[in-house]
Amino acid sequence: MSTYPTNLAKPNQIRTALKIYRVLAIIAGIALFVLIAATGWDLKKIVLNLLTGFVPVLPWVAEHRNTQRTEALLQRAYLAGDGTGDVTGRVNPGVDAEADAGA
């Protein structure tokens, strides 16, 4: 029994797959850019985070640091708000208001 594939992709199939890959890569890049822009990171922070992908183990260190900073930011937003933790102004999001009132 041979381990060599019996059915090989045709050039047109490969070209189609490559076009789909390119479109998905562009969409992912745009989504990442929008996400980074929404966080308000400066260019230095963006570049440093991108460079962590080239050094072994450093991505985990950077991810841990970014998680700590984000959690601290969320805690400050929670304390500055009304105590519900919801910045949209809704009362007890996800909980039925009547059930919460004891009805």
Describe the structure.
There is one protein chain. This protein has 4 helices and no strands. The protein is mainly α. The chain has 2 domains: 30 residues; 45 residues, no CATH class. The longest helix is centred in the first third of the chain and has 29 residues. The chain is elongated and about 65 Å long. The relative contact order is 0.04.
Structural class based on helices, strands and sheet pairing: mainly alpha
How many helices? The count is 4
Average of pLDDT? 78
Q: Which ranges are low-confidence, i.e. pLDDT below 50, for 5 or more consecutive residues?
A: none
Distance between the termini: 71 Å
Please provide the ordered H/E string of secondary-structure elements.
Answer: HHHH
Secondary structure tally: strands:
0
Shape: elongated
- The helicity comes to 55-70%
CA-atom Rg in angstroms: 23 Å
Number of domains: 2
Q: What is the beta-strand fraction?
A: under 5%
What tags apply to this protein structure?
2 domains, 4 helices, elongated, 0% strand, mainly alpha, 103 residues
Brief characterization of the structure:
The chain has 4 helices and no strands.
How do the helices and strands line up, and which of them pair or pack?
Layout: H1 11-39, H2 43-51, H3 58-80, H4 97-100
